[in-house]
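BUG: 3D viewer hangs when loading the predicted structure for this chain

Environment: internal workstation, default settings.
Expected: structure renders.
Actual: progress bar stalls at 90%.

Input used:
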Amino acid sequence: MANHYFEFRGVSKSFDEKHVLQNVSFFVEPGETGVIMGRSGVGKSVSLKLLLGFLQPDEGQIIVAGQDVTRFTEQQFSKIRRQVTMVFQSGALFDSLTVEENVAFPLMNRGGHEDPDEVEGQVQELLEMLEVVQFADRLPSDLSTGMKRAVAIARALAEGPEAILYDEPTTMVDPLMAAHISELIRKLKEKYRKTSIVVTHDTHLAKKLADRVIFLHDGHVAFFGTWLELENSKDPFLRNFLLQDELIPALDAGA
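Structure tokens produced before the viewer hung:
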């Protein structure tokens, strides 16, 4: 059996009478970036919550870090969440901590006796890499949505995960900031080669990052393959989706 880092095997998930995912299968190999695309409400963000155990599947198997986590307990998932971290749309930063303190928080709470100078050096490096060092002393409430996302990515990296999940990293920001965040994530991909899944409707971001594209439509996988294969697809729905996004690159389709 292939050693996939992330995998859905025939996963289905419904909420009341609404079938969000129906027999969905895909995989992402270690070190790859998988991009989950599709219009609003097709189960993109639900897929991430299933991977981290925030939701349970109705049917199918889910593989995370090469382990079958389908029937994992909350305690077992707490270990998985140390290996795989998620960058939420909201940023999920601590409002009462400065940017620097937010990024330092995971480093100071590893359970060991961390050297303060070493922590400061790591935090400084991450703030510089995410280009937010000038905001180190500010509170999250003083930052734009885009800057909060950049800080959230820095904090996620500070946790030292094997893999990162990004939930719509460029949504609800202006086109310039969307392009900036896209470029930051691309740089991080090249530097760290961490296994990642990016949920997005943004074709510009997807084209930069995707080793594999998972395109969801009406609860099913409408496409699974490389970006080049997606661009060359003759499927009318896929071609129309790509064309629309080229015409309106700043359109925010939501999660």
